[in-house]
Amino acid sequence: MHNCVDDLLILHRFVLCGRPGKAPIIKSVVWLPPAPGWIKVNTDGAVLGSPGVGGCGGVFRTCRSFVKACFAVPLGLVFVFKVELLASSLAINYAWNLGWHMI
């Protein structure tokens, strides 16, 4: 059971009791801008399976939260660890090539 109303209605129609799954844990996430003069980069990678088809990307932001640049790269067949590592490596490479040395 996926804790949705549709599942509950189906169970009630068949006069069944469900075993609801655990409630999801909700965490508050806050993005903090970098110090003035610095660029902040947030990266992420994703893989469908492991190994599987994956890709990575990143967003560069200023101290005023403006987007300076972003990138997305398809990576083909990869493992999860490699995708995350490549995302970080590409971000550093892009920043360096754009002349941003304070990231």
TrEMBL record:
Domain RNase H type-1, first and last residues per copy: 42-102
Gene Ontology MF: a single term: nucleic acid binding
Keyword Transmembrane helix listed: yes
Alphabetic keyword roster: Membrane, Transmembrane, Transmembrane helix
Keyword Membrane belongs to the record: yes
Signal peptide annotation: none
Name the record gives this protein: RNase H type-1 domain-containing protein
